[in-house]
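User: Predict the complex.
Assistant: Input components as received:
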Amino acid sequence: MLGLASGPACVASCGPVLIPSLLAERTGLHVHARYLSLFLATRLVGYLLFAVVAWELGALVSLQAPTRPLIFAVINLLLAGVLLRYAYSVGKAYNRPLERRELVTIGTAVKHRISGAAAIGFLTGISLCPPFVAAGVRAAESASLASAILFFAFFFLGTSVWFLPFAGFGWIRRNEGVTTVARMAMAVIAFFYLYIGLMTLIGKHLYGV
Amino acid sequence: MASDSLPARQSRSVVRSFLLTLPIAVWALLMASAAYGHANRAQWIASVVTVLFMITLFFMMMRTSSTYRWRRWFFVALGLLFPVGFIHQVMVFRGTMGIPIEEMIAGRTPFCFLPIPLLILPAAFTKALVFPGSILPNGGMSGGGMAAMAGIWLAITLVVGKGWCSYACFFGGIEEGMASLPAKAKIRKIDSRWRYGPWAVLLAMVLLSLALFEPAYCMWLCPFKAVSEYVAARNTIGLIQNGIFIVLFGGLVIVLPLLTKKRTQCAFFCPFGAFQSIFNKTSVFEIKIDKSRCTPCVLCQKSCPTMALTDESIQQGGTLMSCMKCGACVDACPKGAAVWHIRGTDVAVKPERARLMFLYAAWAMSIMFAGGIIAEGLATILHVFI
Amino acid sequence: MAKLKSKLGYTGAAFTLVIAALAPFLVYPQLSKGFAHLGLHIDEIYAGGPKVRTIQAAGYTIDIRDQVNPHMFQTEKPFVQLDWKPARSLPAHISDAVDIDGDGKPDVKVSFDVPHDPKTPLRVNVDSLNPRYESMQDVGKKKFSALIVRVDDAILVRIPVKQ
């Protein structure tokens, strides 16, 4: 239930990262289904990893004040880097023919390439957004590691329901315009995450009004 | 197909032009008389000058059968005089261009049209408007309130579609003026992909506004804070925000238009412009290319201030949906191939009728909305002397 | 078919002219009214929560407003807003123990000076008597969720609530 209730907030937090990267992929329901599957799977890995850490360390409940912003800052900086690299990789992918079901990958040498969807999914999976932290507190209070993992798995399922409609992006016909808009939007959002990460890292208030 | 339209740029007689201008003259007098209850001398003179200015420009549009250069006079005047009147009001009410937090809490931040697309998703999710203004008038700088601006924006958009960006936007005139200053562009080759910029900024700002629950464009990217108002900087973040808008204003509104002779902020950045493009799909008026007359010399493409004409669009007989209906391409076309058009009718059959109908509607909206702003700016200047 | 499309086009154009003519008298006022009746409200991070209770003090009142919680990823903390009014009737120094949650026990002790000149910046100290509310020392206009400001004839204090 917490997952279902938190779904809109999760979509809102992942939206700036997910939507431009979905738009940057090729047309086709199968491509988008594959993208979302990979995104959600790696997000689940991130969730479960966090569940283990939260329970094992009791870390979330007593997570020291300076540590949480540090984690938050590092994740934002990584997201910024991934988005920028992703935007660059989309340009390269657009210029060479891809297999029909192939997703955009980031990285240089073939063996170091990872799917953009996987990178983004994992990073959003471990980002400390408020519903996630709330779930983490509940998980940390669980009687056993297994129940903590189960809690997070159900939380993940509840939030993931809200992501399924995004498969419909596969119906949007891609052309130079859509891909360019997606890449530019990724760059704008990446700079914003870069700023948030840097400002948090150097300990400034994020918004001073 | 044969066109029995007015040949391009053929003058009309003075009498006929005068008769065609009469409805606009009546409208302008009606709007001016409704604007001020008890006008002081400066306001009265400013009103008279503004009315004469708008009527004269319309008369010249009728007389010369060209649109762009006369419309540009109005638009540049609006872009220059809006900051004069607005900043003066801000200084009178608050003594500073920086918005103090007290004014934001009191709901007296004036609402401009730029945040409209950013407010939609947060309001849809929570019924909350993420803007520190007031829905109804609330004294101070709240003006008519957000409802008034939303209402007037929608009314004008229903009439002119993306023509808002040529006949109502009180920000675009500065860069249009800058773009018209040099005789030739120093930068002539612009990658056509930059015209997707507004859509990218719109997408990014809409998503970030929902995630952060604030008007992200206003907080971070609006270049026009340099000529209106901004959140008072009280810390490092405020300084960064203010630095960004100064750089964007200097680059996109002053320097790049001078170098390219394009409206670079509008063409490559403004998210509201991208949002308005959607309403070009609902607008009855548009610009078309009569392929039977087109050579193609691409003078229309070169003259367009926002790169809304491409080789493909010309081949397909029209503009992109980012067309602002400024009339530059129509005036530039030596063959009369670029024409004003009403959807559903034959291309280049009576284009002058289409132009007239559009101009009556658009100019009426300009007088209604922008006329008061021009008069206010003029009155502010006249107050110094009178 | 072409004739019908043409007729529809001209009808649409004429209709647009009618809308333009009616814009200042009917269209714009109705659209504005419609917007005002959509049931929207200004985000409470700016406007503060709705008033829930008023405490009567000597010569002035303290309005207690409902807790405001941030939406989505707003960086503000949850807060409660207390309004002292009328500001012109306030003594030179305020030091009030306020029961925010209405349980009969004071939750915070708020103290600030009320300068004669309304333009003088304000500073507030809040001592938390209930662990739910955060203490503040010498705070001015720090953030939307932690501040003291004068708005019209009221002095508003916003106290962050611990998450």
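Chain B has a mean pLDDT of 92.
Let me know if you want any component modeled separately.
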